[in-house]
Design brief:
Order of helices and strands of chain B: HHHEEHHEEEEHEEHHHHHEEEEEHEHHH
Number of strands of chain A: 17
Number of helices of chain A: 13
Order of helices and strands of chain A: HEEEEHEHHEEEEEHEEHHEHEHEHEHHEH
CATH class of the largest domain in chain B: Alpha Beta
Strand order of the largest sheet of chain A: 10-7-13-12-14-15
Largest interface: A-B, 30 and 25 residues
Structural class of chain B: alpha+beta
Low-confidence stretches of chain B: 1-5, 97-102, 502-514
Structural class of chain A: alpha/beta
CATH class of the largest domain in chain A: Alpha Beta
Largest sheet of chain A: 6 strands, mixed
CATH architecture of the largest domain in chain B: 2-Layer Sandwich
Distance between the termini of chain B: 61 Å
Mean pLDDT of chain B: 86
Low-confidence stretches of chain A: none
Number of strands of chain B: 14
Number of domains of chain B: 4
Oligomer: heterodimer
Strand order of the largest sheet of chain B: 5-4-3-6-2-1-7-8
Strand content of chain A: 15-25%
Mean pLDDT of chain A: 89
CATH architecture of the largest domain in chain A: 3-Layer(aba) Sandwich
């Protein structure tokens, strides 16, 4: 499971070369080249009990350049393979949007970014690697703060080290951070919080010192690079991950995606932190801490029902919380603790909840 | 019946029944007048194998008058053979009802329509018609005529002789009440239709607004002139038989029948009379009314008469129709189906059907062009047998022709007698024999269109496929070279000639050739 970004890049490059050779020799032998990959159709996405996440099933799809309908996406996929191979070789990264525009320089057309995003996901399925492994990143970025020393692998910065507690606003979890080697940390745990506001409060209240923690701002539903980084913190450094969200079905789902992944990325198994824990804020907490609340919207209620029948929520604890949401029809935000004091959430709520999950 | 006819003259009869003949109102009357006069001109030229030059002009009679309906001067001029000067008053100033009993395919029935137009002009304007005609180009005879409606007699108002200027032909000019505002569409449509079936004519039309429409000759081929033929025994009625007997001079029935009827020789006549139980040696004039009725009934029932010979018909022919279609419709594709001659009730007929598809002129949907003996039929389309077949009897889905496909269907029926449903002569009755022929012709044409469309689409598909390969395979080859770190790209051209691919090619070719 543990593999450094540099090693993973080498692996991807090797896979790309094999892919290129396969196509090269098919053409040389007078055969219309074809590629095969796991099917990402809804029918082929299944819930894996042991991994506790959605994975793609056994169905595979063949894409043949002989088929006129496949020819264009086939070419786009091969171009993307060529393009990312070049990115890795030159030590460059690209955003999803960059990919869309870059294609034009090579005579490849995408009618919109949705189409190029689709091909990027196809290449993920084909290689069994996340796009971050081949240097393609989303635009959205979240942040991290705390005592962690990293060493860049980014060209021009190789070998340079940085401690992530050096800047109070935190550091963007971007391509360079994602691919940096994790050198050293004194942290014992990771807090992933849903909101920038709370992230700042945690830094100000020295949560990193009080709890020996790294603090991550997921900025809502975390981008895959953040999920991937959380996994590295968990896998490579052995740090437990605790998630703090608003008390509503959507907040709960932020935790679930970190822990169990999303159906959209079912073809990737290395983005999750299965041992991550949800600290709250739970539906029950709203009552327990008498938090100021607002009424659940129709949308929230609909979402709660959807989650109730989702296999990722099979656990009794989640079912119970969803039931409380539906019964009380209340939701609350992390900021609601400010009712008591700005420090309350750090000094009172956090220790309570940590104790609670550790007893589980 | 007989008594009624003896009391009023044919002119009077038509005067009283002008609605039936297409002179219902000022707009319809203007259209009918133009049509009748143009048809007469074309008929005259064709009879003498002269390539027609027809000039038509409609001008307001009083330029100060602006509101339709109003009086118009209609002038139709041709380069036909002209009319013998002494026959002019009779030919144009008298309704020649029932003057001809021989059958010949012609446009206007016995020139009746032309006379009707003159009659209508006189009724609505009280002005004489002007006829100028020259048979030799040396002298031109100019008449001004009126019709004495009650007596059915021409009145010569004025007669002049002028220099013929070396031009033969006839000019008819009359004044009538008309409504161009409401008939302009139909009149223009009429010329367009006509141009479609007479590509060997030059036609010029100047409308009341001074706009000039040219329809130019694109072929010098003309259809063979129709021949006269005797009536077929299946196609006659009692009244006709009575009149024929009255005019006859043969001493016995066997001779009478063999001389006066089509497909009846002496042998056949005797065999038939035996079948009918009538003595072949009797004099025709000795037959009593009841016996005439019985003989006609037996004639209709007797099946040994050969079907009528279509040699007397003058269909357009494929070449002329093709020239007309290319000229007026400029289609992407067209096909012409000429059915073998057939007959209904003793009248021979031939169906010619053309189907044109695509191009810039044909609009979306199905446009039907109907012709009877080359005359355009423009009114009452929905009552016509062709319309019924197109809209109710043909299963269009079978031919895989897309909805709203731009299609023009041209149907021309040639016959010694067109089975019009009404006296208005604007639509063909659904006689089963005719319906069957039109249906078969249309089906054949649709099969050809369908084959053309599928060939075109598979050709397009094939072309598209090759273009796709040519666009993408070099890219794939090059990217695979880069990924595999090779020095040269793989030879993708082999793929385009690989046996597998050729197999598919062949399949398509076989399909399109079949």
């Amino acid at each position: 499971m543990k593999s450094s970004p540099t090693a993973r890049k080498r692996e991807v490059q090797e896979q790309l070369k094999i892919l290129g050779e396969k196509i090269y020799y098919q053409i040389e032998n007078g055969i219309f080249p074809e590629i095969e990959m796991p099917s990402r159709s809804v029918k082929n996405i299944v819930y894996d009990e042991s991994l506790k996440q959605y994975v793609v099933g056994k169905n595979r799809v063949k894409r043949s350049s002989k088929n006129i309908k496949h020819l264009r996406p086939f070419t786009q996929t091969i171009w993307l393979a060529f393009f990312v191979d070049k990115l890795i070789r030159e030590g460059k990264t690209s955003t999803l949007r960059d990919v869309y525009y870059s294609a034009q320089a090579f005579g490849i057309e995408f009618k919109d970014q949705a189409e190029s995003d689709e091909i990027i996901t196809d290449l993920e399925a084909l290689l069994g690697k996340a796009r971050e492994d081949y240097n393609v990143y989303p635009e959205e970025r979240s942040a991290i703060y705390g005592d962690l020393t990293i060493e860049y692998t980014t060209p021009g910065h190789e070998g340079k080290r940085l401690n992530l507690a050096s800047h109070p606003d935190g550091y963007l979890i971007g391509p360079s951070l994602s691919t940096a080697e994790l050198v050293e940390t004194s942290a014992k745990m990771v807090f992933a919080v849903e909101k920038g506001g709370l992230f700042t409060r945690f830094v100000e209240n020295k949560v990193h010192e009080k709890y020996n923690a790294l603090i991550v701002d997921t900025a809502g539903q975390p981008p895959r690079s953040t999920r991937y980084f959380l996994r590295r913190l968990n896998q490579e450094l052995g740090l437990p991950v605790y998630v703090l969200t608003d008390a509503d079905p959507y907040g709960m789902h932020i935790y679930m995606v970190i822990a169990s992944g999303s159906a959209n990325a079912a073809h990737l198994t290395e983005l999750t932190v299965p041992t991550a824990k949800w600290l709250g804020v739970t539906a029950t907490d709203i009552e327990t801490y008498r938090l100021p609340y607002v009424k659940l919207t129709d949308e929230d209620i609909k979402r709660a029902y959807e989650l109730k029948s989702d296999p990722r929520y099979k656990d009794e604890r989640f079912q119970k919380e969803l039931d409380v949401f539906l019964k009380r029809q209340k939701k609350a935000e992390l900021e609601a603790f400010a009712k008591y004091s700005l420090d309350y959430i750090v000094d009172k709520y956090l220790p309570d909840k940590l104790k609670e999950v550790k007893e589980e | 019946m007989k008594e009624t006819f003896s009391e009023i003259s044919p002119s009077d009869f038509f005067y009283r029944n002008r609605d039936l003949a297409g002179f219902t109102n000022p707009s319809r009357a203007l259209y009918s007048t133009v049509r009748e006069l143009v048809e007469n001109s074309l008929d005259a030229c064709e009879l003498e194998r002269i390539l027609p030059e027809v000039y038509v002009r409609i001008t307001p009679y009083d330029p100060m008058e602006t509101v339709d309906p109003k009086k118009y001067i209609i002038r139709v001029q041709d380069n036909g053979p002209g009319v013998e000067p002494d026959k002019v008053p009779e030919a144009f100033g008298k309704v020649l009802y029932g003057s001809k009993y021989k059958l010949r395919q012609s446009r206007g029935m016995f020139g009746l329509g032309g006379t009707m137009a003159i009659l209508y002009g006189q009724i609505t304007s009280n002005k004489p018609v002007t006829i100028e005609t020259s048979v030799d180009g040396v002298k031109r005879y100019c008449y001004k005529l009126m019709i004495d409606i009650e007596k059915n007699k021409p009145i010569v108002v004025e007669k002049r002789i002028e220099d013929g200027d070396g031009l033969h032909g006839t000019v008819v000019e009359l004044v009538m009440e008309g409504d161009y505002l409401r008939s302009s569409t139909k009149i223009q449509e009429y010329f367009k239709h006509t141009a479609l079936v007479v590509p060997y004519a030059n036609i010029t039309f100047v409308d009341p607004n001074g706009r000039i429409f040219y329809y130019l000759r694109t072929t010098t081929e003309m259809p063979p002139p129709p021949k006269e033929t005797l009536p077929h025994p299946h196609g006659i009625d009692v009244e006709f038989m009575r009149r024929t007997i009255r005019q006859s001079g043969e001493e016995n029935l066997a001779k009478f029948l063999s001389k006066r009827f089509h497909r009846v020789g002496l042998k056949t006549a005797i065999k038939f009379l035996q079948y009918a139980g009538i003595d072949p040696n009797r004099s025709p004039k000795s037959l009593a009314d009841e016996e005439i009725v019985n003989m006609v009934t037996a004639m209709h029932r007797y099946e040994e008469f050969l079907p009528p010979d279509a040699g007397c018909l003058s269909p357009l022919g494929e070449n002329i129709l093709a020239a007309g279609i290319v000229k007026e419709l400029t289609p992407e594709f067209f096909t012409i189906v000429v059915r073998p001659p057939s007959a209904y009730s003793g009248y021979p007929f031939i169906i010619e059907l053309a189907l044109a598809y695509g191009g810039k002129m044909i609009e979306k949907g199905i446009k039907l062009y109907r012709f009877a003996n080359r005359i355009p039929l423009l009114y009452d389309e929905a009552s016509d047998v062709s319309w019924k077949i197109i809209n109710e009897e043909i299963d269009w889905k079978r031919y895989k022709i897309p909805q709203e496909a731009p299609i023009a269907i041209i149907v021309n029926i040639s016959s010694t007698r067109i089975p019009y449903k009404t006296v208005g002569k604007e639509y063909i009755a659904d006689r089963p024999e005719i319906e069957k022929e039109i249906k078969n012709a249309l089906r054949e044409a649709l099969r050809k269109l369908s084959a053309y469309l599928s060939r075109r689409s598979s050709e397009e598909h094939e072309k598209k496929k090759i273009n796709m390969y040519l666009k993408y395979l070099p890219l794939i080859a090059n990217f695979s070279k880069e990924l595999a770190k090779k020095s040269r790209p793989p030879n993708y051209k082999r793929l385009l000639s690989s046996s597998e691919y050729e197999g598919e090619q062949k399949k398509i070719e076989e399909f399109t050739n079949s």
